[in-house]
């Protein structure tokens, strides 16, 4: 299982939100690229970036900061937030982004996601953010009537590289990941699943590791790394020994 450090960018700064609320932020660094370098130095295999302003504005808003991260590290970078069309996907791929995460459009325009998988094979990740099992969109501001599992099943056999599954109630709260919902989603599809939301300590990593045979291939963690309750090197070591 891969341990993936998250860098959430708002107004060019590295921040973390509570449950996705834009008015509940903590600034951890004024230089997101420096944070990316730190995580790369500590053994990260991929960096996860979210353009928080982009998620709200429905288009990339922190391109300068993202470009600096790409230049600063020699490991793959994936990005999500505000990706609504082929032009934006192509722009990110041309910049050197290895995987592009599509969230809202996966519900609003699944055909676009499927076409993108054909145009950019191996590069498209579907981000499914769930509130009490139902998918949320528009930067988590709207909860739909589509279940996370039904949404995931929509993309079977179309070339999606992975599903990033976030439990919104757990995100930034450090209350532990939603093991059962993550397991259910992974069991429902053949697409690799990356867990996100709620990781607080090394114990949470150990709790997730048994899901690897079910198809959970990675875990994204942010606030725990920044607050110091989780050590990235230790987490990577634990995952590799499993």
TrEMBL record:
Major location category of this protein: cytoplasm
Pfam families reported for this sequence: His_biosynth
Keyword flag Amino-acid biosynthesis: yes
Active-site residue list: 8, 129
InterPro entries according to UniProt: Aldolase_TIM (IPR013785), His_biosynth (IPR006062), HisA/PriA (IPR023016), HisA_bact_arch (IPR006063), Isoase_HisA-like (IPR044524), RibuloseP-bd_barrel (IPR011060)
GO cellular component, one term: cytoplasm
E.C. number: 5.3.1.16
This protein's UniProt keywords: Amino-acid biosynthesis, Cytoplasm, Histidine biosynthesis, Isomerase
Origin superkingdom: Bacteria
Gene Ontology molecular function terms on file: 1-(5-phosphoribosyl)-5-[(5-phosphoribosylamino)methylideneamino]imidazole-4-carboxamide isomerase activity
Pathway(s) where this gene product acts: Amino-acid biosynthesis; L-histidine biosynthesis; L-histidine from 5-phospho-alpha-D-ribose 1-diphosphate: step 4/9
CDD domains hit by this protein: HisA (cd04732)
Location of this chain's protein in the cell: Cytoplasm
Catalytic activity: 1-(5-phospho-beta-D-ribosyl)-5-[(5-phospho-beta-D-ribosylamino)methylideneamino]imidazole-4-carboxamide = 5-[(5-phospho-1-deoxy-D-ribulos-1-ylimino)methylamino]-1-(5-phospho-beta-D-ribosyl)imidazole-4-carboxamide
BP-aspect Gene Ontology terms: L-histidine biosynthetic process; L-tryptophan biosynthetic process
Record family assignment: Belongs to the HisA/HisF family.
Protein name: 1-(5-phosphoribosyl)-5-[(5-phosphoribosylamino)methylideneamino] imidazole-4-carboxamide isomerase
């Amino acid at each position: 299982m891969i341990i993936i450090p998250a860098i959430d960018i708002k107004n060019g700064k590295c921040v973390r939100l509570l449950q996705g609320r834009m008015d509940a932020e903590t600034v951890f660094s004024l230089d997101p690229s420096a944070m990316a370098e730190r995580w790369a130095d500590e053994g990260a295999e991929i960096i996860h970036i979210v353009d928080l302003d982009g998620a709200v504005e429905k288009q990339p808003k922190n391109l300068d900061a993202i470009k600096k991260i790409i230049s600063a590290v020699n490991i793959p970078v994936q990005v999500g937030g505000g990706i609504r069309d082929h032009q934006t996907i192509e722009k990110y791929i041309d910049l050197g982004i290895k995987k592009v995460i599509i969230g809202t459009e996966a519900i609003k325009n699944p055909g676009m996601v499927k076409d993108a998988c054909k145009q950019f094979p191996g590069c498209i990740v579907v981000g499914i953010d769930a509130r009490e099992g139902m998918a949320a969109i528009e930067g988590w501001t709207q909860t739909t009537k589509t279940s996370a599992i039904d949404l995931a099943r929509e993309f079977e056999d179309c070339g999606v590289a992975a599903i990033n599954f976030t439990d919104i109630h757990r995100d930034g709260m450090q209350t532990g990941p939603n093991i059962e919902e993550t397991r259910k989603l992974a069991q429902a599809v053949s697409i690799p699943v990356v867990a996100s939301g709620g990781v607080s300590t090394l114990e949470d990593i150990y709790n997730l590791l048994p899901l690897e045979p079910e198809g959970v291939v990675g875990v994204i963690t942010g606030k725990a790394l920044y607050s110091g309750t989780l050590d990235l090197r230790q987490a990577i070591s634990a995952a590799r020994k499993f």
